[in-house]
Each structure stands twice: as C-alpha cells, then as structure tokens.
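User: Hey, quick favor. My workstation is busy. Could you predict this chain's structure for me?
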Amino acid sequence: MYSRDISKKVLAGRMTRSRQGKFYGGQPPLGLMRDPDDNGHLIIDPETAPIIRRIFDLALDGFGNMKICKVLMEERIPITRMQTGTDCDVNYYAWSGSRISTILRNPFYKGAHVVCKTHQKGIRSNTYNIIPREQREVIEDCHEAIIPKAEWDKVQLLINRRPPIMKGNNCPYYNIFHGIVYCATCGKSMQVRYEKIGRTNKDRRTGKEREPIDKVYYICQTYNRLGKNACTSHKIEARDLYNLVLADIQEVAAMALKDKEAFYGRLSRRMEKQYLADTDSLKKEYENLAQRNQEIDDTFISLYADKAKGILTEKRFLKLTDAMEKEQENNQSCMQEIAALISEEEHSEGDVQMFMGEIRRYAAITELDETVLNRLINCILIGEPKKVDRVKTQEVRIVYNFVGEL
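Assistant: No problem, here it is.
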C-alpha cells in the first residue's frame, strides 16, 4: 500500500507538470529547443524546424519512410542539429526509416505533450512496460506547433492506411492507388492483384507489348477472403481506374482554371447546403442526448426519494444508479464528439479555398503519381459491375479532400 501511494503521487506530479505545458525530460525533439527564459517550455528551433516541415511535406505527398530518407540524403540534410565548422561524411546524412517513423508519429510537432509512455512495474523494480500508443494521454496546445494539427492528423491517416509490403511480387507495376481505393458495398480496401505467370505479354487486339499496369486489377478484400456470399468482386482494371481518375482531375482542374469565380461559388453553395443538412441533424442528436441526461438527473432524484422512504433497497438503488451513470457518461462523450464535428463543419469556406489552391496546381496534369493522388483525393469507392441493356457499367465515386464528391 505504501509503495502504491508513492507511485500514484509521482505519477500525479508528472501529469500536473505536463498539463502546465512544462518539458523537463531529456533532450527536446529535433525541431524544438528550450526557451532561454523558461527552461521547462519548448519553442521552435529556427535551424532545424525546416527539416521537420520538409519531412511532413514529403509524407503528405505520399512518400514512404525510405523514400523520404533518400530525398533527405540527396538534399544533404543532416540527421542532427547543424554544427558549424564540421566536415560531414556520408554517415552524417544517413537517415533511417525508423527515425523518420518516430518523427512522423511524434505529437510534439503539433504542439502537444505525451504523458507517461512507460509504466514501472513496481516502486523497487527496474523493469518497465511500454504503454500502447493509442492508450497514452496526449495534452494538446502545450507549446507552439511546427506542423498544423490538421496536417499532422492527415499524415497519421496516410500512415495508418498504408498497406503492408508484399513479398513474392513479380510484377514491376508500382501501386500508386494504395490506401485510397475501397469497395463501395462493404467498405473494405480493394486489394491489388497481378495476372498469373504464363499469360502472354501481348495485347490480343493490338498485338503490342503490354505495360505492367495492363496486368494489374483491383478486387474487393472481403470477396477475396470470404467469397461471393459475403460481397461481390467489384473488380476493376488498373488501367481503367488510372484513366478515369486522370480524366476527372483534368476536368475539375479545367473548370477551376476557366472560371474561378463561378466554380468557387458552385462549390461554396454545395458545401453550405451540405453543412446546413449535416449541422441540423447533429444539433438534433445533441439536443436529444442533452434531454436524456436531464431525464436521468430527474430519475436520480426520484430514486433517492424512494430509497429514503424505504421503498427501494440500498442494493437495488446502487445497481440502478450505476447503470444510469454509465449511460450519462456515454451520452456526455457523444455530445463532445458532436460538438467537435459541428465546429469542423464551420470551416467549409476555408476548405473550398484550400481545394481551389490545390486543384489549380494540376491544370496541365498529364499523368498521375502518389503526390497528386494524396494531395487531391481522400478515397475512391468502386461500385459493383452491372449490366444495363447488355452493356457493362460500373460506378466509381471519387471523394476529394476538403470538398468531398464532385
């Protein structure tokens, strides 16, 4: 009991200091430095912060850890803080994938502090358990951010949806659509598949040599694992998907370039209409939860009166109130999430401006790559192939960043 109480006091002290925005432990992360006027406060390091911004910009372009390493080495960016008067060798620029991963996952760069990454097994023990990343407490707005929170969250999304590296792949085609193609029916990601060895490399209609992309197709993950009783194949050829997405981006970019004001007005009106519809439903849900919490409070008073009169036993009273308290806590949590969603919806005008700035950059685009796809597109939904009047049709929905479907 004695050691447990001390452990709690130590933990409480650490959390109190973290909530005050103080940083006491070790060397600050790359890109940050201690404030000369307040040793426990972090400020942006003007020498190394551009390195962090460069790494996150590359990640937003869809680059993986090793590709980012190669870019940094080619640009001769050192792995530590700049040291004047030092002749640097190759090892000074040898970035590693694990180091890049640590930087991209570090909440410090969005202005937050992480509380207690490890847990000591006992007060006299030298062994520690690592707390899972999703269970760590993050204290927001502790110091000035190098990376805006929206960009940091976007990078986390890109990292989480990146597929595992597949071994034994004999096809030279690089899947630029990884992590953004989904089945419109079940919502699972579409898996890339390659033709079996033994098929001819010539197109039967034209007689020309087929490119690697012509040997690739996408198929529903659920169908591939569980069969037709779970979902249909939703198969689509990689060449068809590539051409369709490229044509759609070219069309949207041409409209944005031809008549900027008209296109901006169209997007703004559509976003405003969607915002009003979403906000109304969210507000109604918020009001229903608030009303339910008030009903629970009234029920608490009634139950307490019955307990005082002896109508309700102590055991029964505790059981009922415990269930209602849990329901009230869940309702309160949902209300906070709804309030955050309403707050996000209010930034629709800024989202339209950001999309206009991005799409106009690709007005003369002639081919797709990872950078274009990750900058412009949130996800692509592949519908089930159908036959209409003996003609095969398939719906493909492209959801753009900031503005949704167009």
